Every structure is written in C-alpha cells, then in structure tokens.
C-alpha cells in the first residue's frame, strides 16, 4: 500500500517538467551570484577598484539591483511552480487530506528542489568564476598578478540569497495551500488579475513624466546646490519619482490599449489586448522590473565601454614614452642613470628633455563648506597651489609655438578641454611662497598637452614673469619635469624597474597624496585654522601607501606618479580585464534576470489563457492567427520595457557626457558609438530568447506551425 510520501514521489517523477523552470531559475541565480562574489573579493579586483571610489560603489549598486532582479524572477518562477501544483493540491484536499499533512509534504518538496538547485549553483559558481577568470587572464600582460584568491566571505551573499528564496518559497506555498475554498486552489492556475481601462492620454502623460523625472533627478542636485547653497539633501532622490510614475502609466497604456489608433482599427489586436488586460496588474509590475534590470545591464555595458574607450585613446595619444616630475635636489635617476638601466634591457633613450618648474600660490574666489554643509563663496589669497613653467620651456618640451603676454597666464588642458574643472581660470595674483612676493595676473586661455593635463594643475607664464617669481623661492617649491622616448622595443620589465627606482629615490617623505595642498595649508595657518588633511580622521587621505604601489588608489592618488606609456598601457589592460569581468558579470545577471522574468510572464499567459486559446481553436482560428496573438502579447512583454530601459540609459549617458563640460568631445562620440553597437547586440540576444519563448508557448498550447506562414497570415 502506497503512502502519501510515495504518492508525492511518484507525482514528482511524473511531473518532472513542472519543476524544471523553478530549478533552473534557482540554479542560474546562485551560479551567477556566487561567481560574481568570488571575483569581487579577489585582491586584483580590490586593487583596481579603490576603496570608497565611484567605480566600486557603482559596481555594488548595480549588483544589488541584479540580486533583487534574481530574487524577483526566482519568486515568479516559484509562483508558476505552485500554480502548476495547485490542481494536485486541490485534489488531495478534496479527498480529505489535511492541510497540515499537505503543508509538510509541500515544504519538503519545495526545500528539496530549492536547496538542491541552490547548492548545485553555488558549488559550480566557484569553478565558473575560475573559468571566466582564466579567460580574462589572457588579456593581461603580467598574468601572475591576476590570481583568483578565494575568500570565505564570497559565500555570504549566496547564503543570504538562499535563505531569502526559501523564505519566499515557503510563503508562496503556504498562500497556495491555505485557501478557504478548495475551488480557489483548484482554479489558482487560471486566476486573472484584471485592470480597468485607461485613457488614451496615459501614454503621452507617462512619457512627459518620465522625461520630467529623469531631468529633475539628474539636474536636481545642481539646482539645489545653486539655490540652497548646499551640496545635497537626502530627499533629492525623490525627484525621480515622476519617472517611475510615468513609466508605470506608459506600460499600463501599452498593456491595456496597445499601440496604434484603435478608432480607425477598433478590432485590430483586440483578442491579445483583452487577454493581457485580464492579467494586466502583474504584467505591468513585471515590465517595470524588466525595464529597470535592462537599464542596469545597459549601464554596466556603457560604463565599461565608455571608460575603456577613453583610457585606450588617452594612452595611445600620449606624446612621450616616459614622463615624470620630482622635487629639486632629490636623488632620482638622471639621464645617464636611466640610460645605463635601459642598457640592461637592450634599450636606449632618445629625445631626453628636462626643464625646471616652480610651485606658486594662487589667489582666487573659491567655494567652501561650513561644518553644517552650507556652501559659501569667499576670496582666498592662498586658494590653491599651481605648477608653473616658462613659455619657452613649454615650447621646448612640446614643440608648440607659445606666446604668453606679461601679466597673464595660461592653463594646460587636454585637447577636448574636459579636465578644465580642476584648473584655476580666474586667479588675480600668484604668490612666491617663500618671499610672499605677489604678481597680479589675468587668465589668457588654455594650451593643450595631454601629458600635463590633469596632473598637478600646470600653468604657463611669460619668461620674464617666471624669473621674477623664482627669485628667492625655496627649493621645496621647485621641481623638474623630464620627458624622453625609448629607442627599441619598450618592455614592461624596464618600465616597472624604473618606476620602483624612482619611487625608492623619493622615499617615504614624498609619499604625498595629490589632494594635499601646501598653499591651502599655509592659508589656514595664517587665519589660525588647521588644515583638514592634517586632522587624524583624514590622515589616510593625506598620504599614499608605498606598499600599495601597484593598486589604483596609489597610482591615481600619488602626487609624483610618473606617466610611463608601457606601465599605463599594461595597467590599462589589467584594469580593462577587471572592469570587463565585473561589469560584464553585472550585465549578464541583469539581462538574464530580465529575460527570465519575460519568460515566466509569457508562460503565465499560457497558464492563464489556455482555455481561451482552446475556444479560439474550436471557433476555427488557424495556427497562423493563434501564433500572431501569442507573438503580439509576448512581443510587448519582451521588447517594450527592454527598449525603454536601453533608450533611457543611452540618453542618460549622453546627458552625463554633455553636462560635464557643455560639449560632446570626439572621445565621447566614439564611446557613444560603441555603446550603440552594444545595444544592437543586446537587442539581438533579446530577440533570440523571444523567439525561443514563442516556440515554447506554441508547444504548450498545441499550435502547429503551418509551412507557408506568411501566406496564411496574409489570408487571415
């Protein structure tokens, strides 16, 4: 005699396909999340992504969104799973089986399915991460630096995810089982969620609200800063609320009314629209999540492509192979020492150039912040430190014909002038920080040279003015700038050796952060105030750690960091590999989560409308007509939110680039073109999954595909 356990076991084997989707969703989610967690905790990744940096914050933010997406699609898959089991549970209840007994068996069934899929995904996540890691190691010159070191902390996120999934699975099972009416359980598989009709203006108003919310959310902080003279407010994210309201209204219009003018063609697509309307609430909610996930995946793609395109073009355009600056009098390697070192690597140096520079104080109007966050504008005599060289020195180093009028100065930026934010363009005097001699000056525009842009704020003076300001200046305010090329095939070993020799020559005394400004410090002391970077809580920001000289925090933050094209290009490859791994993984998780939600929602259409399609068959509807109705609904679910997410993110990125400096540079145009190409790839992937989903739905509905599909559809 078979027990209830044996019966459940037999049903489990017979209805194995009902468990497939739920199992795959659990497995896929844990596989990706575990792999990403393992990669994120690798020392190589932690070196590239500086602690507290924007890139690490953005990676974690989008990963959090992706995890939420994985939770959502796994819950949806669980909901479908329990709908498929509802009839079986209803029959047991009708036969007199108690809910307590069924609950225990259902919980056991759910736990076994969830845990087996989750544990399998988690166990394979580590090898999957290792395989991906080895693939990306091929992009790295020094592969020994790309070691995947596992940390037990990488299992914390998967463990938390498993607990959340189990919790929701038990709640869904309990909700399915504990119905007051047995017929509710039996008919759960076919339950609808109708929505009321919406007005035709929902779409246009929704679009306007999306534009308003996106614009307000992006420019709101800047406007808030100007109006209220504060940097930010915890309420500013609320400005994005109209965007989500508009998105919901637009999607609701699409689900209920569809596209096109129904006054001219009132019966066009009426069946598909009606079917979507009767389960529209959940569909709209799903499409909202899909749009956000696709937007998150597109952001990850755009971020990596934009960053790497910019870095690649910058490294390629560097005019000298080697460049460094150092405080005068320090025992750094000179021309002869560098030449001798180069010989050890079968290299020689050429085009060696060296010029003196001086560091001066600059007086200008600046914005400061009070202790309570209030912004105020004040004129400061000792506003910031600038590195100055003569017009003739700049001409000698760069080959650019340069003239600077007496009493003026020019700032050095890149060709696109995208780094001018950090340069002082309104100083009215410069100061010798030893003698306190002052020289009135006016700004006279920008010069362009990529090696000096964004580094120590370089400026050019008239030769005579430079000589005046140099008189009596202490050696601690003097530096030298060195440029040279390599004759022969440059190699990483030489560049790395020279970098460490240079770093060791300067010593710990000069392990100074590029944020540390001695002029500002002096100005504070004159006014009887302390310099904030000298305070204990900011001590870590004032210096860099020589032990971390291979990390991005050091290389982006050291005041005397040299520019070696070989090191920069190698670091670029390493950084590229790391960013590709992280953000590509995020893209995979976001897009896969979105596609699985699309798939599960489409399968729900089959479950909800199976009898409608059967009735249409009995009324004589052809397979071509039924296929068209299936596609009409599935296409909305797949492409409407996906296109919205991709287009919104593309315009968001374009807006960011334009808002940086009011123009779109050539590098930014190249980045946007790369982003556009990636969008086409993403659309292609969505199209492939869409077609596979349509085939699955037709199979479930028993729709036979006619051979001459186009001919039949025309007749219809």
Q: What features would you describe in this structure?
A:
The chain is built from 22 helices and ten strands. The chain has 716 residues and is of the alpha+beta class. It folds into two domains: 4-308 and 571-715, no CATH class; 322-564, no CATH class. Strands 1, 2, 3, 4, 5, 6, 7, 8, 9 and 10 form a ten-stranded mixed β-sheet that branches. Helix 9 crosses helix 11. The longest helix has 54 residues, at 565-618. Mean pLDDT is 79; it is low at 709-716.
Q: Quick gist of this model?
A:
This protein is of the alpha+beta class and 716 residues long.
Helix percentage range: 55-70%
Judged by helices, strands and strand pairing, the structural class is alpha+beta
Shape: elongated
Intertermini distance:
56 Å
Average pLDDT score: 79
Number of helices, counting only DSSP H or I runs of 4 residues or more: 22
Question: Which range does the strand content fall in?
Answer: 5-15%
Largest sheet: 10 strands, mixed
Domain tally: 2
Rg (CA only): 32 Å
Show unreliable segments. Answer: 709-716
Tell me the total number of β-strands: 10
Give the SSE layout.
Elements: H1 4-14, H2 16-40, H3 43-48, H4 54-94, H5 99-137, H6 156-177, H7 182-186, H8 202-228, H9 241-257, H10 270-277, H11 280-316, E1 322-327, H12 335-343, E2 348-369, E3 375-390, H13 391-398, E4 408-413, E5 429-431, E6 438-440, E7 442-448, E8 458-461, H14 463-470, E9 478-487, H15 492-506, H16 518-526, H17 539-542, H18 552-557, E10 563-564, H19 565-618, H20 623-661, H21 666-701, H22 709-715
Parallel strand pairs: 3-8, 4-7
Antiparallel strand pairs: 1-9, 1-10, 2-3, 2-5, 2-9, 4-8, 5-6
Helix pairs in contact: 2-4, 2-5, 2-6, 2-19, 4-6, 4-11, 4-19, 5-6, 5-19, 8-9, 9-11, 10-20, 11-19, 11-20, 11-21, 19-20, 19-21, 20-21
């Amino acid at each position: 005699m078979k027990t209830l356990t044996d019966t459940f076991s037999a049903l489990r084997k017979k209805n194995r396909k009902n468990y497939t989707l739920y199992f795959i969703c659990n497995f896929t989610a844990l596989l990706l999340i575990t792999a990403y967690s393992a990669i994120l905790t690798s020392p190589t990744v932690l070196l590239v992504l500086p602690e507290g940096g924007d890139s690490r914050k953005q990676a974690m933010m989008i990963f959090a969104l992706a995890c939420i997406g994985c939770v959502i699609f796994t819950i949806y898959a669980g909901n479908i799973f329990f709908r498929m089991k509802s009839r079986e549970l209803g029959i047991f209840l009708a036969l007199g089986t108690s809910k307590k007994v069924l609950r225990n068996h259902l919980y056991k069934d759910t736990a076994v399915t969830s845990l087996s899929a989750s544990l399998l995904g988690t166990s394979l996540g580590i090898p999957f991460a290792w395989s991906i890691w080895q693939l990306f190691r091929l992009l790295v010159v020094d592969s020994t630096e790309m070691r995947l070191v596992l940390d037990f902390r990488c299992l914390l996120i998967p463990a938390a995810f498993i607990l959340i999934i189990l919790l929701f699975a038990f709640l869904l099972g309990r909700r399915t089982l504990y119905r007051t009416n047995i017929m509710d359980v039996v008919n759960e598989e076919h339950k609808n969620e109708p929505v009321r009709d919406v007005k035709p203006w929902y779409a246009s108003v929704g679009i306007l609200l999306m534009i308003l919310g996106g614009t307000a959310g992006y420019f709101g902080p800047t406007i808030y800063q100007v109006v209220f003279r504060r940097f930010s407010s915890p309420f500013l994210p609320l400005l994005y609320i109209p965007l989500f309201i508009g998105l919901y209204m637009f999607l609701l219009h699409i689900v209920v009314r569809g596209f096109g003018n129904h006054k001219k063609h009132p019966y066009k697509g009426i069946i598909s629209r009606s079917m979507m309307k009767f389960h529209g609430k959940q569909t709209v909610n799903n499409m909202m999540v899909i749009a956000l996930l696709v937007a998150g995946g597109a952001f990850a793609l755009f971020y990596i492509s934009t960053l790497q395109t910019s870095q690649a073009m910058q490294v390629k355009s560097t005019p000298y192979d080697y460049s460094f600056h150092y405080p005068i009098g320090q025992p750094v390697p000179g021309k002869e020492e560098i030449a001798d070192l180069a010989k050890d690597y079968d290299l020689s140096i050429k085009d060696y150039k060296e010029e003196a520079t001086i560091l001066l104080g600059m007086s200008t109007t600046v914005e400061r912040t009070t202790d309570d966050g209030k912004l105020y504008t004040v004129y400061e005599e000792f506003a910031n430190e600038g590195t100055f060289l003569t017009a003739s020195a700049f001409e000698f180093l760069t080959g650019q014909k340069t003239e600077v009028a007496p009493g003026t100065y020019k700032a050095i930026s890149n060709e696109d002038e995208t780094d001018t934010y950090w340069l002082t363009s309104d100083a009215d005097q410069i100061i010798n920080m030893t003698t306190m001699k002052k020289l009135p000056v006016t700004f006279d525009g920008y010069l362009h040279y990529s090696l000096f842009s964004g580094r120590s704020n370089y400026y050019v003076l008239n030769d005579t003015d430079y000589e005046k300001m140099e008189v009596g200046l202490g050696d601690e305010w003097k530096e030298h700038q060195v440029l040279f090329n390599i004759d022969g095939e440059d190699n990483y070993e030489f560049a790395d050796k020279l970098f460490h020799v240079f770093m060791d020559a300067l010593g710990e005394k000069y392990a100074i952060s590029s944020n540390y400004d001695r002029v500002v410090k002096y100005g504070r002391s004159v006014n009887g105030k302390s310099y904030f970077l000298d305070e204990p809580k900011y001590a870590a920001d004032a210096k860099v750690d020589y032990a971390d000289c291979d990390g991005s925090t050091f290389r982006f933050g050291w005041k005397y960091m040299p520019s070696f094209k070989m090191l920069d290009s190698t670091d670029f490859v390493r950084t590229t590999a790391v960013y590709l791994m992280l953000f590509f993984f995020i893209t995979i998780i976001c897009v896969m989560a979105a596609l699985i939600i699309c798939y599960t929602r489409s399968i729900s259409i089959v479950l909800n409308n199976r009898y409608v399609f059967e009735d249409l068959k009995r009324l004589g509807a052809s397979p071509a007509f039924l296929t068209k109705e299936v596609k009409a609904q599935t296409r909305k679910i797949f492409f409407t939110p996906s296109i919205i997410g991709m287009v919104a993110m593309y315009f968001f990125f374009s807006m960011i680039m334009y808002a940086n400096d009011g123009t779109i540079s050539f590098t930014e145009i190249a980045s946007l073109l790369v982003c556009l190409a990636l969008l086409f790839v993403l659309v292609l992937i969505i199209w492939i999954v869409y077609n596979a989903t349509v085939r699955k739905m037709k199979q479930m509905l028993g729709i036979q595909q006619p051979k001459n599909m186009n001919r039949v559809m025309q007749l219809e």
